Amino acid sequence: MGFGVTELLIILAIVLVLFGAKKLRNIGGDLGGAIKNFKTAMKDEETATSSDSESKAPSAQLDNESGTTIEGTVEQKTKEQV
Q1: Which residues of 27-60 are buried (b: 16+ CB within 10 A; e: fewer)?
Q2: Could you read off the pLDDT of 42-59 as tens digits, one per residue?
C-alpha cells in the first residue's frame, strides 16, 4: 500500500514543476534552520531546568538520626517504616 520509487519520482517532478527549484531550496533551508533553532532551544531549556533544580533546597528532607523534617515536624519512626 506504500509508495514505490516510480510514484515518488512522479510526485517529486510535479512538486518541482509547481514550485520551482529555487523556492523548494528556500523552503528546505528555512525548515532546516527552524529545526536547528528548536533543538538549540530544547537543549538550553534542559540545562536551565537542571541547574534550577540543583540550586533549590529540598523542602521536606527527613533527618534519619533525629526523625524530624527540616520544617521541624516530628516523624514517628517505627520498625515497620525502616
Answers
A1: eeeeeeeeeeeeeeeeeeeeeeeeeeeeeeeeee
A2: 998 888 877 766 555 555
